[in-house]
């Protein structure tokens, strides 16, 4: 016997179902669902292992009869589907969609709401819907009855269907069965929206908690981050003007003013990569990450961000209470913005990476000696399904502007293409081909070993002996459970790349 959740869930056509709102990020929805295991005991996530950033991500809640579809590039909720009406107590304007045990013909049946109940008591008259003939030998096709923002699917005997029939009389007859599913979407009707469901701009916010609330109460959400070079980043926001971040100049107070207080402050010291910094500084070892001439090697602290939890070499995450006071900040810490999709490394000013050769931007000047803490690195998280730190942050989208044409590389561009373009851009930057090859060999990074599931990273085997990447994964796109990725460096940029070629994380320094 199916047991339904007794708590009523309100239907909001074109907007959402209960707290699940259209336009919300995958990170936001999945985090909230996982926080209530007694309500959502089973969670299934489906995605393309080869193209996780291009194809939709599907979150199924089988115990609740729900299926949620997110677009791949932005990971925002586009479609809510109810597949089993008996597993969720749906309500629309105080009217039950399905009353348990009631079989009255005008109300509902155990399988789902009848057409008469939907038409007479819930949503009222509608324009004719769309009939979909059976694709197999089934005797039933599907009639989709659509209202603005919501649609129901009714099985209909194919032999009874006719373009000339009155659809109200047809669906009220014995030839039609109760609804088998319901969809909530953004649009005037299902036929009008289905072809652009995953491409039209969502109207709702990524963070469902701010839906229907004043914008003044929350920091404006980030749409995209434009990487201009020379340590300059332009942050495109949903409703506010763009915000410029200058590495080595932007202060923690500037971040708080633009993005609100961080979700956490994190300080970590991992001595295991200090050997790479020391060796690179000698100038005789190829482990440096393509620094400007004369600069010592400095691996941009990817292992210090919030994609890792506490270890013996770490200070615990501390949630901010008095961040407005700069004296309360630990030296060299991270501001973790999980809901914005990035971490900012707070340290004493350093010289940012060089400008792109054809960008029209001047190279940065060395900073003056100062005790003022600034943002020196920005870590942009891809939240790629299948990656080890998946769902620690919501997805951060970015674009690298290589020149003044407006064309660039995006967070969805496969790394093979990114690497090819950047090699061309920096072709004249290296003194010889040997230096170019030595600075672009990947370092293998493992996030899967340690005492806890989110332990600090391990470097495996140093740099590979060849720049040829070759096959990066098996047929399922997995790496055997180690959580291995590879780090590839270019001036001012460090890419963490999965075996399927997706960029899991980009550090700008």
TrEMBL record:
The cellular component terms of Gene Ontology attached to this UniProt record, alphabetical and capped at eight, are:
trans-Golgi network
Please give a single GO biological process term from the UniProt record. Golgi to plasma membrane protein transport
Start and end residues of each stretch annotated as Disordered: 277-325, 437-456
The cross-references to Pfam families, in alphabetical order and at most eight, read:
PHAF1
Source organism superkingdom = Eukaryota
**Protein family according to the UniProt entry:** Belongs to the PHAF1 family.
Recorded hits in PANTHER family, A to Z, give:
PHAGOSOME ASSEMBLY FACTOR 1, UPF0183 PROTEIN
What this protein is called in its record is Uncharacterized protein
Q: Which organism is it from?
A: Penicillium frequentans
| Origin organism lineage | Eukaryota, Fungi, Dikarya, Ascomycota, Pezizomycotina
């Amino acid at each position: 016997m199916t047991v339904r959740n007794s708590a009523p869930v309100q239907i909001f056509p074109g907007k959402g179902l209960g707290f699940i709102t259209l336009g919300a990020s995958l990170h936001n929805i999945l985090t909230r669902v996982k926080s209530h295991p007694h309500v959502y005991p089973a969670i299934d996530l489906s995605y393309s292992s080869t193209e996780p950033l291009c194809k939709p991500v599907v979150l199924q809640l089988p115990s609740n009869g729900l299926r949620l579809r997110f677009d791949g590039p932005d990971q925002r909720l586009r479609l809510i589907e109810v597949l089993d009406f008996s597993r969720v107590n749906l309500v629309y304007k105080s009217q039950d969609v399905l009353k348990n045990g009631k079989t009255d013909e005008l109300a509902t049946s155990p399988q789902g709401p009848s057409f008469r109940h939907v038409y007479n008591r819930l949503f009222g008259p509608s324009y004719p819907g769309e009939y979909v003939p059976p694709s197999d030998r089934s005797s039933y096709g599907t009639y989709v009855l659509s209202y603005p923002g919501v649609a129901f699917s009714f099985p209909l005997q194919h032999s009874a269907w006719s373009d000339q029939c009155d659809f109200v009389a047809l669906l009220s007859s014995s030839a039609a069965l109760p609804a088998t599913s319901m969809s909530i979407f953004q649009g005037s009707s299902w036929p009008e929206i289905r072809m652009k469901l995953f491409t039209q701009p969502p109207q709702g916010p990524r963070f469902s908690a701010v839906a229907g609330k004043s914008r003044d109460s929350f920091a404006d959400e980030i749409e995209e981050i434009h990487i201009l070079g020379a340590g300059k980043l332009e942050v495109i926001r949903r409703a506010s003007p763009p915000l410029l971040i200058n590495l080595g100049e932007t202060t923690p107070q500037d971040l708080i003013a633009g993005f609100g207080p961080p979700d956490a402050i994190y300080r970590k010291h991992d001595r295991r990569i200090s050997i790479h910094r020391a060796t690179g500084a000698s100038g005789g070892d190829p482990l440096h990450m393509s620094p400007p001439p004369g600069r010592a090697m400095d691996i941009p602290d990817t292992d210090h961000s919030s994609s890792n939890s506490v270890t013996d070499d770490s200070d615990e995450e501390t949630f901010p209470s008095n961040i407005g006071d700069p004296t309360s900040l630990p030296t060299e810490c991270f501001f973790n913005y999980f809901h914005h999709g990035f971490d900012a490394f707070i340290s004493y000013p350093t010289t940012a990476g060089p400008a792109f050769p054809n960008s029209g931007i001047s190279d940065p000047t060395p900073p003056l000696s100062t005790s003022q803490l600034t943002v020196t690195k920005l870590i942009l998280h891809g939240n790629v399904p299948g990656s080890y730190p998946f769902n620690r942050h919501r997805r951060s989208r970015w674009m690298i502007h290589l020149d003044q044409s407006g064309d660039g590389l995006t967070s969805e561009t496969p790394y093979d293409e990114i690497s090819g373009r950047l090699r061309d851009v920096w072709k004249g930057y290296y003194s010889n081909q040997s230096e170019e090859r030595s600075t672009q060999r990947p370092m293998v990074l493992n996030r899967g070993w340690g005492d806890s599931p989110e332990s600090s990273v391990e470097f495996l085997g140093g740099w590979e002996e060849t720049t040829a990447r070759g096959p990066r994964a098996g047929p399922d796109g997995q790496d055997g459970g180690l959580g291995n990725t590879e780090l590839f460096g270019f001036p001012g940029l460090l890419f963490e790349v999965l075996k399927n070629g997706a960029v899991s994380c980009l550090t700008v320094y």
